[in-house]
Design brief:
This is Chromosomal replication initiator DnaA. The protein is mainly alpha-helical. Helix content is about 65%, strand content about 0%. The longest helix has 18 residues, at about 15-30. The model is unreliable at about 1-5 (pLDDT under 50).
Amino acid sequence: MESYRAEPYRVPVTEGDRIRADAALHLAAYAFGVPAAQMLRRERTRPRACRARWSAMYLAHVSFGWPLERVGHAFGLNRATASTACRWAEDARDDDRYDAVMDGLESGLRAISELPAVDLALALGGDR
């Protein structure tokens, strides 16, 4: 008898969405003192890393104005997981310290995302 092993849920995501999701993830990692590698683990992770990842998803949702489905896809998860993460983060904003950190991260991520794109090959004077 052959065993059936379902392939993981995969949705095509643009490179730009992945880059933006990575920016949110790494900013959250820095702010909460959690290595990004812990936040990216597919197996069960520590609560602190899980909450930092949820914060990153919420950060992408509010900073970029992404719908929850897009957030989930950009982070390699489904919409329900993104929804749970954003609901937790929104509730956590009742804590003044967390709220202040998230305000700063939102401002920083928006500022970074509004910077002009630069082609480094051209900026450095050709192909180096």
